[in-house]
Design brief:
Elements: E1 3-9, E2 23-28, E3 31-37, H1 41-47, E4 57-59, H2 65-68, H3 71-80, E5 87-91, H4 93-105, E6 114-118, E7 125-129, E8 133-139, E9 147-153, E10 159-160, H5 162-167, H6 175-179, E11 184-185, E12 191-192, E13 198-199, E14 206-210, H7 217-222, E15 228-232, H8 240-246, H9 251-261, E16 265-269, H10 279-288, E17 292-294, E18 300-302
Parallel strand pairs: 3-4, 4-5, 5-6, 14-15, 15-16, 16-17
Antiparallel strand pairs: 1-2, 1-18, 2-3, 7-8, 8-9, 9-14, 10-13, 11-12
């Protein structure tokens, strides 16, 4: 099952000439998600050849403008395109008040259904699941109620040991039963244990998204052991006082979160527009956690 994250925006509050506010496109198998929707998100989707018609779910971390100002335009563009499929939007209660006011006074008449799913940013909770993945929300610590997200694959099927199955002359019509863990009964009454016919599945991939937040040990606990962590790194550590005042994180602190949480890979983003060169932020994070990458706009990270 494919699991990919494409960066659409990596800037913080103020867009720059070459960078856009927060937004990420996530594809899990044939399912298409959007996390945050800063100004210009739909233009970025056009730039990187992502079809907005495929989106079925949008997850919003909090209601600051650099995370939501692209959302009304995106939803209205879908309406102009005569979208028929429902759209599910997950976010704090304040988000839906904002959208309702906007659509009321713009006399928007939607031809497709909008389903609002209210998140309590103070709780770590499962907010969505299907046969392919689960989505959890967990508290972050910012100036307004804010949550992070963890997208987790469903447990994978076992990998078939084809040679073993053939040695016992097991018909291929039983292969799916074996993949889900069933034993096999031979004609002579002998049971073949599933462990003899399969390899253990790889663990489910987990991706954590931490938008605007203070450096906080509670975040470390929430993202323990994920495969890939996206964490904001708005400032270099020489601006740690500014980070504390605005309730953001430095690149050094993002690296410390990744190290303490025992993640496999760190991606940093949400950079202040004061930084034209992002390499110093990358270097600072790597001093704490070596396997760190920049959330370059347009780059797709494969989590397989």
């Amino acid at each position: 099952m494919s699991f990919e994250v494409t960066i659409l925006g990596n800037s913080s509050a103020t867009p720059s000439a070459n960078r856009h506010p927060s937004a990420q496109y996530v594809q899990v198998s044939d399912h298409h998600l959007l996390i945050d929707c800063g100004e210009g998100t739909q233009m970025q989707m056009e730039q990187f050849h992502i079809k907005k018609s495929k989106l079925t779910q949008i997850f919003i971390s909090h209601v600051h403008g650099d995370h939501i100002l692209g959302l009304p335009g995106l939803l209205l563009s879908m309406n102009l395109a005569k979208r028929e499929q429902p759209m599910h939007i997950f976010g704090p209660p304040e988000l839906f008040k904002i959208l309702d006011v906007f659509f009321k006074y713009s006399a928007a008449d939607f031809c497709y259904e909008l389903h609002y799913h209210i998140i309590d940013p103070q709780k770590h909770t499962l907010i969505f699941e299907n046969l392919y993945y689960k989505v959890f929300a967990f508290p972050l610590f910012h100036r307004v109620p804010t949550c992070g997200f963890i997208i987790e694959e469903r447990t994978k099927l076992k990998k078939l040991n084809v040679a073993a199955c053939e040695s016992f002359q097991i018909p291929f019509t039983f292969y799916n039963d074996i993949k889900i863990g069933k034993d096999y009964l031979l004609e002579d009454g002998t049971w073949i244990r599933n462990e003899q016919l399969t390899y253990p599945p790889a663990g489910p991939i987990r991706y954590a998204y931490c938008s605007d937040t203070l450096y906080d040990n509670r975040v470390v606990e929430a993202v323990k052991g994920v495969d890939v962590l996206y964490h904001e790194a708005t400032f270099l550590h020489d601006k740690v006082d500014r980070a504390l005042f605005t309730m953001h994180t430095t690149a050094k602190q993002a690296g410390e979160v990744a190290k303490q949480a025992g993640v496999k890979k760190l991606i940093i983003g949400h950079f202040s527009s004061r930084y034209e060169d992002l390499n110093p932020l990358l270097d600072e994070a790597r001093q704490q956690f070596t396997n760190t990458a920049i959330a370059q706009e347009g780059e797709t990270f494969s989590l397989e």
